[in-house]
Specification:
The protein is of the alpha+beta class and about 675 residues long. The protein has four domains: about 180 residues, Sandwich (Immunoglobulin-like); about 80 residues, Immunoglobulin-like, CATH 2.60.40; about 270 residues, no CATH class; about 110 residues, Glutaredoxin (3-Layer(aba) Sandwich). β6 and β7 form a beta hairpin. The protein is extended and about 115 Å long. The relative contact order is 0.10.
């Protein structure tokens, strides 16, 4: 594994270690020393090749369920198989040909693998002058890596095949099998390709415009050429495909496989040159596509827990009010105007921030914990209103409202909905940020229009209003039920606040919500008693709650994780015995550079500052066993603990007789708990 690949993998681990922990929380694969998880066999296309001819040889590999092997370039983490052939005198093999690989991403780290059965093909060149009936024994010793998403195990296999010199006849069934395996191989493209190295590498591959492709991806074979973990942009440019991705070097030649979907691909050998970026879609077309995406996204937002209660109450208010058709249309227009105005306001502020040179995205306001606290108080207040704690005066979210109330409700729905837009609107809003300002604002308006569209249709289509349920006592029960999703929204905002401002910030936000709730409860009591100016307790409480936002600040970053635990030593059984004799607690872990799970655990748990501090206070000694090269001494120690590979994590408490075997997927809490 090259240094560049290790650095690439570790950067990806730093960004996505927690995701790998989520992906690897399933039960660990059963580990039986000596068991192979990929079954392999050698098959010759003809068992009786003619002297002086060539015969195709297949290495057929079938992985167990949940296991995978690696392509000749494994990607960011992994290793390609190593083959050692033993052949009769005068015989030789041609180049080994691999089928088109698959992509496997764990913790943001890209691997090029085979998760389904795969077959490698080569050609055995039979020496001339051999008599018919001469035996041709073939022996292959292969070392390969096999992994699940939780564990990696180096395996070995010795395969043999006996051929006999004959007439070269091929059985039809055998020929059909080989034809199928050949179809899985990448095909030569037949035309020269060109690549332009640099921070952004662009590769131009001739490809007819009338030939359809599904999901294209470039698998680089040349090492230190591209960042394996970086996304790739694939575009058609006339009779060519242009691949753009992050470059990491300036190789003399770029080789690889361009996959075009359904296991099909083409061998690429590109030489350096100038590759112009393909023309972008016309701005008007791009704007229309983004507008349509925003419209659909805004429409789907109405089913989100932060918007659905507001829409439902506005719809029921039409059913209960019994107003004229003109009044219903006016409310629909006012609600739509409020939603569109709020989206335009947020979009305009966002574009202004970006124009000032500050990186920001949609829902930028949620990156400020003070805004999150205000939203927490707001959604909590709406939930308490829906639960019947107090009644809102005009403008209001709910029963009696005129045009002003409808406008305010639409604006409120759009503002509260901003945390929910990501899953539906990522592409549309991302496009808006690169469009001209006028087109971008049209996209933001499309979001507001889509959000308001259901209520607007209720206002202008009498048939829809007639389908609304008749007013009755059930509406009060339904209203209280609608408070549940709003309370859940408030809970989610409290969690976001805790992530941004720490436990103290979350406590401040919950205290602000409590103060607001007490004031609103007092207001509700005064409303029930018919007192004048019932709103002064609620307003005073809201002012205090809003003012508390000034007390919340973003928590300081925890700091970069250390590159390792200070004082860690290489593992040896002698050193382990010495530390145990001294009565020291010992944490021993066994890792390898090619083990994806190992690297995730190290970055996300072992090498974190909280674990280093806990180990330092507890006097825990750390021993590291590096099994990258398959050290047989470490291998025997690992097998003694009923494991066939890494990772392996052991903790020896002072005075204990045996080691405590820790899970193969670690969290910082797992390690700090063993100290306490």
């Amino acid at each position: 594994m090259t240094a560049a690949r290790i650095v690439s993998g570790r950067i990806a681990l730093l960004l996505a270690g927690l995701l790998a922990l989520v992906l690897g929380t399933g039960p660990a694969a059963a580990q039986v020393p000596g068991q192979r998880h990929v079954q392999m066999r050698i098959v010759a296309e003809s068992d009786s090749p003619a002297a002086g001819s060539g015969v195709a040889i297949a290495l057929v590999s079938v992985p167990d369920a949940g296991w995978h092997g690696y392509w000749q370039n494994p990607g960011a983490v992994g290793t390609q198989p190593r083959l050692n052939w033993t052949l009769p005198a005068g015989a030789s093999f041609g180049d080994l040909r691999y089928p088109v690989p698959e992509r496997l991403t764990v913790a943001g780290i890209m691997n090029y693998v085979y998760e389904r059965p795969w077959t490698l093909l080569t050609e055995l060149r039979v020496p001339a002058g051999l008599a018919v009936g001469t035996r041709l024994p073939i022996r292959l010793a292969i070392d390969y890596l096999v992994c699940t998403r939780e564990i990696c195990v180096p395996e070995k296999a010795v395969l043999t095949a006996d051929l006999t010199i004959g007439d070269g006849v091929i059985d039809p069934a055998r020929r059909a099998a080989f034809d199928g395996w050949r179809r899985a191989l990448p095909k030569p493209i037949g035309s020269p390709a060109v690549f332009q190295p640099g921070e952004q590498l662009r590769l131009r591959v001739p490809f007819p415009a009338d030939v359809a492709i599904s999901t294209a991806y470039f698998f680089p074979l040349t090492e230190d050429a591209v960042d394996y973990d970086a996304p790739q942009t694939i575009r058609r440019d006339g009779d060519a495909i242009v691949v753009a991705t992050k470059g990491t070097g300036r190789p003399a030649v770029l080789e690889g496989v361009l996959a075009t979907g359904q296991g099909q691909g083409f061998e690429i050998r590109a030489t350096p040159g100038v590759v112009a970026a393909p023309a972008e879609p016309a701005p008007i077309r791009a704007a229309l596509i983004a507008f349509a995406g925003a419209l659909l996204g805004g429409l789907l937002l109405n089913i989100m827990p932060c918007v659905f209660p507001i829409l439902s109450l506005k719809a029921l208010s039409l059913a209960r009010s019994g107003e004229s058709a003109s009044h219903a249309r006016a409310e629909g227009v006012a609600y739509t105007a409020g939603a569109v105005a709020m989206c335009l306001l947020l979009g305009g502020v966002l574009l202004a921030i970006r124009a000032a040179g500050v990186a920001a995205g949609w829902a930028f306001q949620l990156t400020d914990p003070r805004v999150v606290l205000l939203l927490l108080v707001l959604t909590g207040g709406i939930a308490l209103n829906l639960a019947g704690l107090f009644e809102l005066p005009t403008p209001q979210v709910g029963a009696r409202s005129g045009r002003g109330g409808a406008f305010a409700t639409g604006a409120l729905a759009a503002f509260v909905a901003t945390p929910c837009t990501g899953p539906f609107m990522g592409a549309a809003l991302g496009s808006a940020l690169v469009l001209p300002p006028v087109a971008a604002m049209a996209v933001f308006a499309g979001l507001g229009f889509g959000l308001a569209l259901p209520f607007l249709l209720l206002g202008f289509v009498p048939a829809l209003r007639r389908r609304l349920p008749r007013p009755g006592a059930w509406m009060d029960v339904f209203r209280k039920c609608l408070s549940v999703p709003m309370f859940l929204t408030a809970l989610a905002l409290a969690w976001i606040l805790g992530r941004q401002a720490g436990v103290d910030g979350m406590a401040t936000g919950l205290a602000a919500l409590l103060v607001a709730a007490l004031g609103l409860w007092w207001t509700g009591r005064r409303q029930l008693r018919g007192l004048d100016r019932p709103w002064w307790p609620g307003l005073a409480a809201l002012v205090l709650a809003v003012g508390s936002a000034m007390l919340v600040h973003r928590a300081p970053p925890a700091g970069a994780a250390p590159t390792g635990i200070a004082g860690a030593e290489p593992f040896s059984e002698a050193r382990l015995a010495s530390l145990r004799a001294e009565g020291k607690p010992v944490f021993a872990y066994f890792t390898a550079d090619w083990c994806l799970t190992c690297k995730v655990n190290e970055r996300a748990a072992i090498e974190t500052r909280v674990v280093a501090d806990a180990f330092g206070k507890g006097g825990v000694k750390v021993l590291v066993g590096d099994w990258t090269d398959g050290d047989p001494v470490l291998g025997r120690f690992i097998e003694a603990h009923n494991r066939a590979g890494v990772p392996l994590y052991l903790f020896y408490a002072p005075g204990s007789r045996d080691a405590r075997v820790l899970p193969q997927v670690l969290t910082p809490a797992t390690l700090t708990d063993i100290v306490s």
